[in-house]
Specification:
The chain is 84% helix and 0% strand. By secondary structure, the protein is mainly alpha-helical. The chain is globular.
């Protein structure tokens, strides 16, 4: 609970500082608490829900990530379109974060009312494990590869599907940007359906079903038709969506409650490095398309 309050406060303050920044270097400084807060709440909430709640709750938790990532660009575009000021958009986002912060503070006593509690002795024992020791545990490398692949697919589609549609399918830039939102809608619906299926199916079975849908979506991208590519991106989001929340939920079950938070933290670090690598892969053609869209 206190980690969530602290991280939400960091992101709210960072977003507010973003709105008042007047140079690039100050934006870089503000990005540090923004990333720290986002990473801390991600790890804390994933581990908390995995330990104290069911796969249904984990899927719905990540489903609302999809709601936020779909709604936030729309809200920001509306604010910029009506007022022509990006600073107002960041101030609006900061206001939403401060409202969430007040809600977390008001409900802090509820965090301790859970069915399961991990002993402090177990946590102290887990804290002595090094990253190298954890990686050598059976199954950890495979789970890390699954996380990296899932996040790689998510961020590749989110960042470059519009580029793919413009360059390879000759889709207008404005329409290609809308497909990105369609992809995230698929991601959100996939996690929502995962929560519904978790009532009857085990998490591993939901993951396998999602991978079948994901594979079908990838195959559609290789077809020469524009419509099939659009449907393909939706199916990729729909099929890839259940993997991340279900793997997080399975971490305590697969490796033990005493090391689940540290393991989720280490996996998140690997995923962050993967995101940095993907964001740094912009080539000259991508930059040209971005300039064309600005004109």
């Amino acid at each position: 609970g206190f980690i969530c309050i602290f991280s939400t406060a960091l992101t709210a303050i960072a977003l507010l500082l973003f709105s008042f920044s007047n140079n690039f270097y100050l934006l870089c400084v503000c990005a540090l608490p923004l990333g720290l807060g986002a990473g801390a709440i991600d790890i804390a909430l994933n581990n908390y829900v995995a330990l104290h709640y069911s796969a249904i709750h984990m899927s719905f938790l990540h489903c609302f990530y999809g709601v936020g990532v779909s709604a936030s660009p729309y809200i920001l575009s509306k604010i910029i379109g009506s007022q022509g000021n990006w600073r107002t958009g960041y101030q609006t986002a900061a206001s939403i974060q401060f409202a969430i912060l007040l809600l977390l503070i008001a409900t802090i006593t509820l965090w301790g009312k859970t069915k399961i509690s991990v002993s402090s002795a177990s946590v102290r024992h887990a804290s002595g494990l090094s990253f190298r020791t954890m990686v050598r545990m059976p199954g950890v490398k495979e789970i890390c590869c699954m996380f990296i692949t899932s996040c790689g697919i998510e961020y590749t589609c989110g960042n470059w599907c519009s580029t793919f549609l413009v360059e390879n399918k000759n889709m207008p830039i404005a329409n290609a940007a809308q497909v990105v939102m369609l992809y995230y809608i698929g991601l959100t619906l996939g996690r929502f359906c995962s929560g519904l299926l978790a009532v009857r199916l085990h998490s591993w079975k939901i993951i396998r079903l999602g991978q079948i849908v994901l594979g079908a979506g990838i195959l559609l991208l290789f077809m020469p038709f524009l419509t099939t590519s659009v449907i393909g991106f939706f199916l990729i989001g729909f099929g890839n969506g259940p993997l991340f929340p279900n793997l997080n939920y399975l971490t305590p079950e697969n490796f033990g409650e005493n090391i689940s938070q540290q393991l989720i933290s280490n996996i998140s670090e690997i995923d962050s490095l993967e995101k940095i690598k993907l964001h740094g892969s912009i080539n000259n053609e991508d930059i040209a398309i971005m300039k064309q869209s600005q004109n």
